[in-house]
């Protein structure tokens, strides 16, 4: 695009000559190996083709690796072979860039800030209210977006989870660092490991092997028997069918409801029957009817 000239053939020749220099530089820098096919712009004159071939061979003199350059074919393509200098073992030692992932581009600060905001919310939700403070070390451009573009979102997270979110801008950092989570004091005490005493108390060998002493077994039997007796007493007090005398009292009360002296007499007799004494002065309903008559 930078080449200027009057005739089209002259422009093609100048473009191919510049391309030959750039291709030789890229092949050396990238350490390309194997069969390399270069597609130049078609040239009508044979002399122009030879100029391009010569320019490429001159540019490839700086390469220490073994290579061979063929002539340009009728389709305008040139084939060359080259032996790679670096070994496969050396390539295994190389790792892709952690920032761009080997793509040659860097993620935008807005995208990184959005990801940090999502990670903060996930960490707060995972903490279940026990997180007191989170410190996030990030590059300056990411901190700028978090403190401006996502400030309202971060404030809503702090208010909802009752936590404090601190964004730390570090100019030495290229990517987001690890989150520093500070838990509440109660949670720190609960998550602390159990303390083991230095001198544990001696354990009885019989208890350790599951054999209890005879005295402990007898005490357990006595406690079990006492519990059973208490249960029986409670059943006797709370449940059971009414006695015969109680039924007679109830029948007498139903027949003579509303009569004062008789009611007092029946009430006194009922109290006696509940205490366990034998009721006196009460008879069957038939005899009671005769007395009332």
What does this entry look like structurally?
This protein is of the alpha+beta class. The chain has twelve helices and six strands. It has helices at 8-30, 46-59, 88-92, 109-127, 140-148, 151-161, 185-191, 205-208, 214-238, 244-255, 260-275, 285-292, and strands at 34-39, 67-72, 77-82, 131-138, 164-169, 180-183. The strands form two sheets. The chain has a three-stranded antiparallel sheet with strand order 1-3-2, with helices on one face. It has a three-stranded mixed sheet with strand order 5-4-6. The longest helix has 25 residues, at 214-238. The termini are far apart.
List keywords for this structure.
293 residues; three-stranded antiparallel beta sheet; 6 strands
What letter string, H or E per element, gives the SSE order? Answer: HEHEEHHEHHEEHHHHHH
Shape: rod-shaped
Quaternary structure of the protein:
single chain
Low-confidence stretches: 194-211, 284-293
Compute the gyration radius: what is it? 51 Å
Distance between the termini: 138 Å
Largest sheet: 3 strands, antiparallel
Continuous helix count: 12
What is the count of β-strands? 6
Output the structural class.
alpha+beta
- Percentage of helical residues? 40-55%
Arithmetic mean of pLDDT: 76
Name the beta content range.
5-15%
Strand order in space, largest sheet: 1-3-2
């Amino acid at each position: 695009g930078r080449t200027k000239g009057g005739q089209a053939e002259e422009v093609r020749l100048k473009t191919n000559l510049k391309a030959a220099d750039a291709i030789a530089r890229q092949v050396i820098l990238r350490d390309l190996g194997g069969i390399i096919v270069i597609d130049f712009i078609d040239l009508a004159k044979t002399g122009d083709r030879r100029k391009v071939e010569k320019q490429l061979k001159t540019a490839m003199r700086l390469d220490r690796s073994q290579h061979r350059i063929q002539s340009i074919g009728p389709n305008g393509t040139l084939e060359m072979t080259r032996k790679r200098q670096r070994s496969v073992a050396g390539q295994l030692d190389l790792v892709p860039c952690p920032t761009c992932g080997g793509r040659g581009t860097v993620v935008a600060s807005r995208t990184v800030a959005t990801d940090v905001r999502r990670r903060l919310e996930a960490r707060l939700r995972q903490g279940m209210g026990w997180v007191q403070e989170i410190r996030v070390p990030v590059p300056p451009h990411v901190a700028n977006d978090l403190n401006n573009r996502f400030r309202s979102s971060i404030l809503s997270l702090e208010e909802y989870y009752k936590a404090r979110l601190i964004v730390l801008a570090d100019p030495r950092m290229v990517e987001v660092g690890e989150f520093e989570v500070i838990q509440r004091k109660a949670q720190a005490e609960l998550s602390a490991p159990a303390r083991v005493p230095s001198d544990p108390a001696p354990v009885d060998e019989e208890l350790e092997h599951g054999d209890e002493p005879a005295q402990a077994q007898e005490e357990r039997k006595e406690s079990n028997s006492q519990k059973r007796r208490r249960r029986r007493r409670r059943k006797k007090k709370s449940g059971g069918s009414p006695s015969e005398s109680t039924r007679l009292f109830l029948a007498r009360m139903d027949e003579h409801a509303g009569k004062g002296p008789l009611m007092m007499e029946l009430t006194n007799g009922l109290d006696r029957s509940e205490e366990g004494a034998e009721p006196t002065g009460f008879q069957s309903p038939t005899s009671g009817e005769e007395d009332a008559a």
